[in-house]
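Memo to structure team: turn this sequence into structure tokens by end of day. - J.P.
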Amino acid sequence: MFDLRKEQLKKERAYLIGAGLANQTPAQVQEHLDELALLAVTAGAEVTGRAIQMRPAPDPKYFIGSGRAAEAKKEIDTLSADLVIFDDDLSPSQIKNLEKLFEKRTIDRSMLILDIFSHHARTHESKIQVELAQMRYLAPRLTGLWSHLGQQTGGIGTRGPGETQLEVDKRVMKKRIAELEKKLDNVERQREQQKKRRDTLFKAAVVGYTNVGKSTLLNALSRARVYTADKLFATLDATTRRVYLAGFGEVLVSDTVGFIRKLPHHLVASFRSTLGVITGADGILLLMDASSPQQADQMETVNRVLNELETQDLPRLRVFNKIDKAEAPCLARLRAEYPDALLISAIRELGLDELKAGLRALALRSGRSPAAHEKWSAETPEES
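Reply from structure team:
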């Protein structure tokens, strides 16, 4: 995979393109491009411009229409952009056609997210998961990547080095995917062994959209030192900490990787062991950004992924974070729409007593025991 951070002397200038399909509105497409811009900045790029087109379905050649693509070409040249990023997944042929037209490197949202994950992976497990996701993403695209060696796949005049190398690459990639899957299975077995030691303890998973403050909340609750940053996907590894609840005792609370719109399914599949922290929890602390204008859309995304993980039966505690950044009318609306939800500021430690009381109620209903004072590291990423 490419890496946007290889050029250290200057930031790559990125031009963003989004298409409003089906029932999307122009405002929604712009919101999605705002998020794509944050992703691009997180990857180390400088956003120079953007374009959208409303259409009923993707164009098979350019994803957007040929006329809009030609207009975008002029804007890209005028802005001296180095890189074009689409907000939706592109086919290998679309990437090839667009790069030929734009004369610029062109990538899609999944490639951008995979690049960010690759840069943020810190532990052995997350590095395996990211590489596996990259391999799964690239495998079906190999034919397109080798299209410069022949316009057809096979036939008279096209058999030879190109096709031979393609088959070699397919075998190499298939073997590497199998190796990574085996390594990940070994990590999962070790995780299961460690889980047995904590099976009687109450476990809560902090779940939410990326950059809603999950790691900051875990630090505030446990006085730990989980890495935090005001950017997307700062945390890729599940991290577990002990949290003391008055009237109950110690429980285990886990931070998890953040969700995002159009999360590549390769990542969901590859991060199954990390996401297993959610499915193995006794309760979910559903954290949302009280100040985000895309709050409803983000909540829908998180609920959709949780449903895919079949966690409908797990009790949930709904919490809105960052109330210090939210306007008073917004907070009033949240209180009216979600009377059972808690409003907090993790960074300013506002509302944490109420949050702990809510966690205690979940723990008492679960029938689990408080954590015994056994020796295990509370300062390392979750490995169970």
